[in-house]
Amino acid sequence: MTVERSTIQVDGTDVHIEGHGDETVVMIHGWPDTWRLWDAQVEALAPTRRCVRFTLPGFDIAQPQRRGLPLDQLVAFFARVVDAVSPDRPVVLMLHDWGCVFGLQYAMRHANRVARVVAVDVGDSGSPEVKASQTLKQRWRVAHYQLKLALAWYLGSGAGDRMTRQMAALQRVPGNPATVCASMNYPYAMRWFGALGGLRHALPARPAWPTLFIWGTRKTMMFHSPQWIAALEARPDCRIVPIDAGHWMMVTRAQAFNAALLDWLGVEAPSQCSG
Description:
single chain, about 280 residues, alpha/beta, Rossmann fold, 8-stranded mixed β-sheet, 10 helices, about 40% helix, about 15% strand
């Protein structure tokens, strides 16, 4: 089967649409990634679903003027993307890292436009419950790398780009290092220094939709709390899938990730799916 592909623009951002089917899956990545993070998932889903993905505003190194968006504007951008690609039906959101943080804000403000959520490795990050579940050493590690990235955002290209790529290498990011740049770090500047209006208006993350939560167990720190897991376990329409992997398991463990994803979505996993 030939997969249909098209690209539209929303607010100057390329939005890539691939696949067939009545259900639309909107994929939102995090740091320091681009729309290509989801290549293996699009390959698995495109025969039965429309897959929509884009690079977050401010994250595209090819853009001559890269700028981040305040939270409200970012949520409004997501709303315009969803309305453009699926005006008549709610969508499935598939989110990772900062894509979880920002995507859940969209879902909570536009609940009627979201059918279900796939949240990857980040749940109620930033909540008092997550902080309470971390040791002092883990809190220091979080502050150490996030403050460095926030500083790199203020430094901008040059020194900021170098700092960001060094941190990506330390974190063993599987993507192309040539696409990593300091402008991707504005979410950390928002969290720590209130840049672009900060996150003070962010709503507490609640699993209010049927949710598949996939998380990597091979990490020194977690971005969800025991309370987040308990809230999901209490709902029959939610599922939790731990995978023996790090933060980017959709790339490093694509076969296991896609099997869990396709099973929850009710799609038979294609035999050619590779991990």
